[in-house]
Specification:
This protein is mostly helical and 476 residues long. The chain has 2 domains: 389 residues, MFS general substrate transporter like domains (Growth Hormone, Chain: A); 36 residues. Helices cover 78% and strands 2% of the residues. Strands 2-1-3 form a 3-stranded antiparallel sheet, with no helix packed on it.
Length: 476
């Protein structure tokens, strides 16, 4: 069968795709980062404990990730443009409804679930669009996308600080909900690739062509080709025993689900190891980001100072998102090595934050945290992009999000319990640093495994070369 394929543009309208994806993601990360700054005092008035606050913020990060596997068939059937628009509508609706929340359950449903589902759908669609339009320049495109998306981290904290000085927490959240509706403009820029690229009909072309993930005709053909249970009716009729029928039905359903969701990726050892490390990295980083305003408040900085430090962190993050791909190329280091480097800087910077006492010292720590964050975001996304073939990218991203969500939900009460018991966020930083240290050890183990495998391959090559030199036949 001939499969529809399109040649990656690596430029042209692809750069507008990058800008549109960045625009539609501009508020998502900053809003989650300053949420604790908006509702920190309000939660105390409502009687919501630090443990419950930690659960709310982690459910916001985790719920959409757990449901991310549903994005695979959605992206295939409807394409990234429609899913991006729907995701933005859900995200804005969740923010607006959160402004009316007065209890723990209300926050969980509106901010924890609806907002999370919208942001995850939007992010998956944006990443798929960028990876569809770029092949050779994919690293640069991901870096620019993260650069545009990071612009919000510079001005959003100051906007929040200004709005909070005029309105209360509820009014601030309602205004933010209206501002996030502008993300739909960016989502509408995500044109399907068939609008701009050449189509090639070649079943054997696997080089630089890319496949349209949202190709409705191809998916419908596959769904018609396979029955809903993955079995032919004749096979079931041939089985006379009820147990055999049930077994066939169950196996067919499992195979069908695995085929639709591309769960065969779970057999890839390299992908699973990378997946585990990245899941724990994301847990540490997201929790530290949402806790940082509270940590700075505990260090007795005022609202304007906290906003300035978050903006400085955002500027450093933004600059190094753009520089990270070029620095990695100049150092000739693989993405995993650059991620390791960023985690070391993060670990040292978080430890330094515990001992800082002055405004200038805290600003310096914020800059180093921003540098590490810029490298981490770029190379995490590059690792996810390169850990699986393009036709399985949606599934790889969704499986990654599922693991991230499960880890966050399981560990969500831990940081809040530490704060409630110890009465300070300092122990939370130490806990996150311990997890980061364990991640670094896992990455070192992965490096050692790859080194041993490459060494064995090199020794085999030298042995073959030695044999060929003694061979009388001309192998040239």
């Amino acid at each position: 069968m001939t499969r529809r394929e399109f040649i990656a543009l690596d430029g042209g309208w692809g750069w507008l795709i990058v800008c549109g994806a960045g625009l539609s993601s501009m508020f998502i990360v900053p809003v989650s980062q300053v949420f604790s700054m908006i509702y920190g005092n309000k939660f105390e008035e409502l009687g919501i404990s630090a443990t419950e606050m930690s659960i709310i913020m982690n459910v916001n990060q985790a719920f959409g990730m757990i449901l991310a596997l549903a994005n695979v068939p959605l992206l295939r059937n409807y394409g990234y443009r429609k899913i991006a628009v729907i995701g933005q509508l859900l995200y804005s609706s969740g923010i607006i409804l959160t402004s009316f929340a007065t209890c723990f359950i209300h926050f969980i449903i509106t901010y924890g679930m609806i907002t999370s589902l919208g942001s995850t759908m939007s992010f998956s669609a944006n990443m798929l669009a960028v990876n569809t339009y770029f092949n050779e320049k994919r690293g640069q495109a991901v870096g620019v996308y993260m650069l545009v998306a990071g612009l919000g981290q510079i001005f959003v904290p100051h906007v929040i600080s200004l709005i909070l000085s005029i309105y209360n927490s509820e009014g601030t959240m309602l205004i933010l909900g209206g501002m996030t509706l502008n993300h739909i403009i960016g989502a509408l820029l995500l044109h399907p690739i068939e609008w701009h690229a050449k189509r090639v009909n070649n079943a054997e072309n696997k080089s630089e062509s890319i496949k349209t993930i949202g190709d409705d005709a191809n998916i419908n053909h596959q769904m018609r080709k396979l029955s809903i249970l993955g079995l032919r009716s004749e096979d079931v009729k041939k089985s006379s025993a009820p147990r055999a029928k049930n077994k066939f039905l169950l196996m067919g359903m499992i195979q069908q689900v695995a085929m639709i969701l591309d769960l065969e990726l779970l057999r890839d050892t390299v992908y699973m190891t990378t997946f585990t490390c990245l899941s724990f990295v994301l847990f540490v980083e997201l929790n530290f980001n949402v806790l940082m305003p509270l940590i700075l408040d505990e260090l007795r900085f005022d609202m304007n100072s906290i906003a300035t430090m978050l903006s400085v962190l955002g500027i450093a993050d933004l600059v190094f998102r753009g520089l990270a791909p070029y620095i990695g190329e100049w150092l000739r280091q693989p993405p995993m090595a650059m991620l390791f480097f960023s985690l070391v800087i993060n670990l040292i910077s978080r430890m330094a934050l515990i001992f800082t006492q002055t405004y200038v010292a805290t600003l310096i720590v914020s800059i180093s945290l921003g540098v590490a964050k810029g490298f981490r975001i770029v190379y995490m996304n590059i690792l996810i992009s390169t850990s699986a073939p393009l036709e399985k990218f949606a599934a790889a991203s969704s499986i990654q999000n599922l693991g991230n969500g499960c880890i966050m939900l399981i560990a969500s009460p831990v940081l809040g319990l530490i704060k409630d018991i110890a009465g300070s966020y300092i122990l939370c930083i130490i806990f996150l640093n311990i997890i980061t240290l364990l991640i670094l050890i896992m990455l070192l183990g992965l490096f050692a495994t790859k080194y041993i495998k490459n060494r064995k391959k090199l020794n085999t090559f030298y042995e073959l070369e030695h044999v060929c030199k003694k061979c009388d036949f001309n192998c040239q």
